[in-house]
Specification:
The structure holds 2 protein chains of 2 kinds. Chain A is mainly alpha-helical. Chain A has 3 domains: 1-50; 65-296, no CATH class; 341-594, no CATH class. Chain A has 23 helices and no strands. In chain B, strand 4 and strand 5 form a beta hairpin. Chain B has helices at 40-47, 69-74, 91-102, 107-117, 133-145, 163-178, 190-193, 214-222, 230-238, and strands at 2-11, 14-24, 29-33, 55-60, 63-64, 76-79, 151-155, 182-187, 199-204, 207-213. Chain B has 9 helices and 10 strands. Chain B has a 6-stranded mixed sheet, sandwiched between helices. In chain B, strands 2-1-4-5 form a 4-stranded antiparallel sheet. Classes of the chains: A mainly alpha, B alpha/beta. Chains A and B meet through helix 13 of A and helix 2, strand 6 and helix 3 of B. The complex binds adenosine-5'-diphosphate and magnesium ion. Adenosine-5'-diphosphate sits between chains B (11, 14, 16, 34, 36-42) and A (590, 592-593, 596).
């Protein structure tokens, strides 16, 4: 039977890989994969390789961990593991449920398979994921060369740690289920465990008190040490003393054994550490396999919840994905006649956090003005004004450049409903505009608040031309320009959603992350920045020329106002063209064709 | 009301619908039947202007769906096989949204009787996630009916409903037909349609193999035998190609 299950697993894996590889035949995925590969090469491998090569280059001595600090590190690591393991006894409040997919449940649960076989299947199954995670962590921590040992030891070490933890979680959940079957409620269990922890801590403190009263090494004042390594050594000594007293070493022993292979500095040490670690692993395995509880019901419930969540995430509906979907009143009163695009704003605002409402903008503005006046009135506080401007500049920058990737209450989240949207008596551009209004409104709101802050607080002495009238004109000009800039930026991810829906879909689907997805993200961000730079260029040039040419005649204020109008016209024309083109794409869009494998 | 001529839809080399022509007048209900994959959904999506047809024309209430899509869409409603709803809008908010899209003034006065007729008035403040499948379908229908369309397309409206739900759905459809709407509905189960449809059109592999009134089609495929069931007719018409 386990053979059949393994066959299922391996075939699924093979098909997943095959379908991914087949997908690369489409140029869009191939390009994504290439960019992703280059990115990974530079960010991950390069660093790992670099870190490994440093000693040979001899330019800088890698900090190698002094051998006598190793035990402390192991002990601290063991302490972390112990805490994690303890949490696995405290946190869960339901019955044990192994995560099976709905298909696995449909095929395996009614099949004549013993429960134990299912557990084996699940365990073997999870090793794929664990090994992958271990490999990733090993790569990312490649620069921890101070630990010594080779990448292979680290990989196997991580695998042992993660796999044993995984078993521990499973075993704990089984025991918890058994306790619940015996009528011990989660809260009673937590109380008991907390009581145990308090008991252990009390015993330890008693031990410590006795030990500390005994004469210890001099030099308790750490500041007097000459070098950092001496300092570290002394610190380690004290930590060791604390952790070595009382019952703690015994509690930490299994965790330490599991960590052994990871911290092994060389081959022989690794081999001798491997035995005890495997022993702990085997003990866990025995525990989990022997300790039979019925996990089927909880597994089914869990997989249903997960499937619902995955479906929600696929549709880009994060509110549903978090399971916090609650009926809410509309963000504003929607009259039944008027421009239909506003209906989309109304609808999509409902899909996001309720702070994004018109009144928030008003409250924010009042708070900023009040805060400014309070700070500006008192000469003692005036020095804080630059901090205001720095915060405002940073907020504006992030909102401008990353905001469009974060605020996605537009076509990106509504593509699943495109069939219905397309039966509405609207032109394509109207749907696209309507869908984009929500992120435009949210980002513009944040930008306007930042602008208000800057208008109030940003008047450096060095910029003499920035007089109050000039500032006001600039701000007034920017108020209508900012939403257009946001719209320009948002055109790019929305175009991407329409042109490459499968990309956007895969990016949402967490279980389908891959190297091409990373590449795609980078391409999108770069594309967005490029498009915006290109689109802003004519407007900026035009504005610059106008101001330069006219300010001698009509003064800077009028020149800026004049230029703002020009910028507004240029940007509006650009956004209009983009919307029209995207509307055409929307009208030609066929969801059924795009989501086929 | 619905005039289709020479409608074809190709996906690459694959022809999903080939040279389909028919008309549906006011008060008529056309049943589009055929085995799975026959091209029913594809045809309906072309007719409703969701996807462009590769060839052929379709006029909805006198407006060409390609040349004047907005006017044509104003007159139609399309109900997909899976109700497509917005997860974070309540039943009432769905109606408010749709009313604004179609510019239905005073929609509350229209919505209330609709909700009552469809028996979801007591669920008016719930989200789709809290509704059963049948309820979701009713909500989708309420949204589609709010602007009183003259032309309606239902894709597999009876699939997944319980017997009572099927009964109610049929009644709703018949009521709109009596009120003068032109209706096309698709199904792969011919016998479910006999009480609703005035006409049937049998599709197989994207091609029309028979159409006409129910009586005509029965007569053609019963070959003179009496009392041939619609199911039998369906099987004879489509051959044993159910895959
Ligand atoms: N986007 C698409 N791309 C390619 N083939 C498609 C697409 N959509 C549907 N098809 C194919 O067209 C045929 C008709 O599909 P459909 O209209 O859904 O059939 P029905 O609704 O009658 O079951 C099927 O063979 C289907 O695989
Ligand atoms: Mg279909």
């Amino acid at each position: 039977m386990i053979g059949a299950l393994l066959y299922l697993r391996l075939t699924s894996l093979k098909n997943l890989v095959l379908s991914r590889v087949r997908r690369l035949r489409q140029p869009k995925y191939l390009v994504g994969a290439l960019v992703g590969a280059v990115y990974f090469y530079f960010v991950v491998f390069q660093r790992a390789v670099h870190a490994g090569r440093l000693p040979a280059a001899g330019t800088r001595h890698p900090a190698v961990l002094p051998a006598d600090l190793l035990p402390t590190l192991v002990t601290l690591g063991a302490l972390v593991l112990l805490v994690i393991a303890t949490l696995s006894w405290i946190l869960p409040d339901g019955r044990a449920g192994l995560t099976f997919t709905e298909a696995e449940i449909a095929f395996l649960f009614p099949a004549p398979v013993r429960r134990r076989t299912l557990i084996y299947y699940k365990l073997v199954n999870s090793q794929f994921a664990i090994l992958f995670t271990a490999a990733l962590i090993t790569l990312l921590t490649g620069s921890w060369s101070f630990l010594g040992g080779s990448a292979l030891y680290h990989l196997l070490g991580w695998w042992l740690i993660l796999a044993t933890l995984n078993l521990h979680f499973m075993g704990a959940s089984f025991v918890i289920t058994r306790l619940m079957d015996n009528g011990i409620t989660p809260w009673r269990r937590r109380l008991i465990i907390l009581g145990l922890i308090v008991l252990v801590a009390g015993v330890m403190l008693a031990w410590l008190g006795r030990d500390l009263r005994a004469p210890t090494a001099p030099g308790t004042d750490l500041a007097t040490f000459q070098s950092t390594s001496a300092y570290l050594r002394a610190l380690a000594g004290r930590v060791n003393a604390v952790l070595a007293s009382g019952p703690l070493p015994w509690l930490l022993l299994p965790a330490k054994l599991v960590l052994g292979p990871f911290f092994a500095p060389n081959g022989p040490a690794f081999l001798s550490a491997l035995g005890p670690a495997l022993l702990v692993f085997a003990a866990h395995l025995l525990w989990v396999v022997r300790f039979e509880v019925s996990f089927e019901d909880a597994s089914i419930a869990k997989s249903e919840k997960r499937a619902a969540r995955v479906a929600a995430v696929r549709e880009g509906n994060w509110r549903a994905a978090r399971g916090a979907l609650k009926a809410r009143p509309g963000p504003f009163r929607l009259a039944s006649t008027g421009r239909p695009e506003l209906a989309f704003l109304w609808k999509n605002l409902l899909s996001t956090f309720p702070v994004f409402r018109p009144r928030t903008l008003a409250i924010g503005a009042v708070l900023i003005i009040a805060g400014y006046r309070w700070v500006a009135r008192d000469p003692d506080y005036r020095d804080f004004l630059p901090a205001f401007t720095v915060v405002a500049f940073i907020t504006a920058g992030y909102t401008l450049f990353l905001g469009p990737q974060l605020a996605r209450q537009d076509l990106r989240s509504d593509l699943g409903n495109s069939d219905i949207l397309k039966t509405y008596p609207l032109h394509g551009w109207q749907v696209v505009l309507g869908e984009m209004l929500t992120p435009i409104a949210i980002l513009s709101g944040v930008l306007w608040l930042a602008l208000l802050t800057l208008l109030l607080a940003f008047h450096p002495q060095s910029l003499t031309w920035l007089t109050a009238p000039v500032r006001f004109t600039l701000a007034a000009g920017l108020v209508p320009v900012l939403p257009l800039v946001c719209a320009l930026q948002l055109l790019v991810p929305n175009a991407a959603a329409l042109l490459f829906p499968a990309w956007v879909q895969t990016m949402r689907n967490r279980s389908e992350r891959g190297i091409e997805v990373v590449g795609q993200r980078i391409i999108f961000l770069a594309g967005q920045l490029l498009v915006v730079a290109l689109a802003l260029l004519p407007a900026a040039l035009g504005a610059g020329l106008l101001i330069f040419a006219t300010q001698w005649l009509i003064g800077p204020v009028a020149a800026i106002a004049f230029a703002s109008v020009a910028v507004l016209v240029i940007l509006a024309a650009e956004v209009g063209c983009g919307l029209w083109w995207l509307g055409q794409r929307f009208e030609a869009f066929d969801l059924s064709a795009e989501l086929r494998p | 009301m619905i005039e289709v001529s020479g409608l074809s839809k190709r996906y690459g080399d694959f022809t999903a619908v080939r040279d389909l022509s028919f008309t549906v007048g006011p008060g008529e209900v056309l049943g589009l039947v055929g085995p799975n994959g026959a091209g029913k959904t594809t045809s309906l999506r072309c007719l409703a202007g969701i996807i462009p047809a590769t060839a052929g024309t379709c006029r909805i209430a006198g407006h060409d769906i390609t040349a004047d899509p907005v006017a044509a869409k104003r007159a139609l409603a399309f109900f997909p096989d899976e109700p497509r709803l917005f997860d974070y809008l309540t039943v009432r908010q769905h109606l408010a949204f749709v009313a604004r899209i179609y510019g239905v003034g005073d929609h509350e006065a229209l919505a209330e009787p609709l909700l009552v007729e469809l028996e979801i008035a007591d669920k008016a403040d719930q989200l789709p996630g809290e509704l059963s499948r049948g309820m979701k379908q009713k909500l989708a229908i309420a949204c589609g009916l709010l602007h009183s369309p003259q032309v309606m397309f239902f894709d597999e409206p009876l699939t997944g409903l319980d017997p009572l739900g099927i009964r109610r759905m049929k009644d709703s459809i018949l009521k709109r037909a009596h009120a003068g709407a032109a209706i096309v509905l698709s199904s792969h189960l011919l016998h479910l349609l006999e009480e609703v449809c005035s006409h049937v059109l049998i599709l197989k592999k994207g091609e029309k193999i028979a159409d006409g009134t129910l009586a005509d089609v029965s007569a053609r495929f019963s070959k003179g035998e009496a009392n041939v069931s619609l199911e039998e007719i369906f099987l004879r018409a489509t051959g044993d190609s159910e895959t």
